């Protein structure tokens, strides 16, 4: 079985070329620059791992991996426009440098090129893969819309938040794995467990992300701790705190949300700790992680085939940055 | 053979249903509203006609027609954001009513649903159709980028303008026809002529569009005559006038572009007429139309099979509104 590092490296070498024509350079050069400022390439690696669970990695898995990576980057470019974000991966966003119109159009064309990569795979799998890819792409858009809708709502339930997170984040991780497994010839039954592993892992990952934003080690987290609290972002923590805090704790939390004192982060964190929101979040994360591992165990291939996927899950979840 | 009216009606009845799920309604309802405010449905009808040139219309041609119509509407929603346009088809644009974020995301999801329709067709044609669709989608994005780039340039050559128009407008008309012809089982040779017919017809159509904006009958044109002149839009007419006017005519034209007198439209029109830009535009339109008809004639099917397509070309080009 391949190691995580070798899969990352082999995807990188497959993906590391121009994806777009030279002209018009005003459209395409900003995209090449954005794609080369690589993220962690988690989704493409999941594609390769989904394939390798069932078979030797097929060249088509690299085409799928590229499609998934381009789709993911398309959502980042468009989300950054919607969120008016100035920075991404420590660099100015595409729209901040090249204007919103070019970022919008660049995102569009990146999505089309994702479909170009999908169209390279063996015809026998094309319809099934396209169906899953399209379903997932729609869900990701729905998740982004719900996220924006929730920003305007005063109250969001935990169920609503989990539904949104699942659409916005988890389904693409799950579908990346499943697409790889389709190429690997997995049965429908095994594909289902592969997908559910990815979906539950994604939710656990997001719980951890919200947790680290509040309780992470500032020297390791890589971004400002407490950013979500400062911006009143609805997170697992805030939603549960608003639903369970009582009396003066609840009053103080609501006051803090409605104001912006210099010690806002410290005061909200104190309430979180007093109400044991941190313990609750860790318990919830473990519950989703257990569901994920249950589905991993159910995939009907030998344990050795699952080893690298298990390592990736550990890498994603044990991370403290 | 079907008449234009019957094809329009049968597409309308195929297309007239919800294309999106109910939730989130904040994302999908604006799109349903936009799609039901129908345009002329020219591209889907071209799909059906491309099919009927070679065979009875296959149900797959309707799936392709829907994909093309959704793609076209996706470009309109995104172009309107980029152009900050307040109105489309006499109605407020999606972003004007629902905000830019929802319009952006709505456009994205409309494009995904276009690929859903493509994925309904017979597997034997899927790769070829996807390839053509993706190539065309990229070209349309490139055309929009060039159009925006040209707005910032002082001088654009006729060749550059035709290249841009071809990408922005013609290739989708050409590809709509060709996709239909693929489903109809057309040979590569015939597909080539079908495409070239659509491409040249599209250029002739744009020349006429530019002409009518300047010289059309205000009572029939349906929008303000002279709008392009008011906004200094680079059109076939302005580009050729700047390239051929001499002496005081050229000086006056440049002055008019650099200023905004109340009689700007009349004065520019007077220069256009003096320099015979109107005659030149009509001659150029005829030249592209002749090229289009040459390719129509070359398609190796009986003349009766081409009749409705010929009628559509006449409808598009003889129109005075």
Descriptive notes:
Two copies of one chain form a homodimer. Chain A is globular and about 60 Å long. Chain A has helices spanning 4-15, 25-36, 42-52, 59-83, 94-98, 100-118, 123-152, 158-183, 188-215, 218-221, 227-230, 236-244, 247-257, 264-274, 277-298, 303-318; strands at residues 87-88, 91-92. Chain A contains 16 helices and two strands. The first copy, chain A, has a two-stranded antiparallel ribbon with strand order 1-2. Chain A is mainly alpha-helical. In chain A, helix 2 packs across helix 6 and helix 4 runs antiparallel to helix 8. The model of chain A has no long low-confidence stretch (mean pLDDT 94).
List the helices and strands and how they pair.
The structure is a homodimer of 321-residue chains.
Chain A: H1 4-15, H2 25-36, H3 42-52, H4 59-83, E1 87-88, E2 91-92, H5 94-98, H6 100-118, H7 123-152, H8 158-183, H9 188-215, H10 218-221, H11 227-230, H12 236-244, H13 247-257, H14 264-274, H15 277-298, H16 303-318
Antiparallel strand pairs in A: 1-2
Helix pairs in contact in A: 1-3, 2-6, 3-4, 3-8, 4-6, 4-8, 7-8, 8-9, 9-15, 13-14
List the keywords:
homodimer, 321 residues, mainly alpha, Farnesyl Diphosphate Synthase, 2 domains, two-stranded antiparallel sheet, 76% helix, globular
Major protein interface: A-B, 37 and 37 residues
The overall pLDDT average of chain A reads 94
Structural class of chain A, by secondary structure, is mainly alpha
Distance between the termini of chain A: 27 Å
Helix content of chain A: over 70%
Q: Any idea of the CATH class of the largest domain in chain A?
A: Mainly Alpha
| Largest pleated sheet of chain A | 2 strands, antiparallel
Low-confidence stretches of chain A: none
Number of domains of chain A: 2
Helix/strand order of chain A: HHHHEEHHHHHHHHHHHH
Q: What name goes with the CATH superfamily of the largest domain in chain A?
A: Farnesyl Diphosphate Synthase
CATH architect. name of the largest domain in chain A: Orthogonal Bundle
What's the Cα radius of gyration of chain A? 20 Å
Would you report the number of β strands of chain A?
2
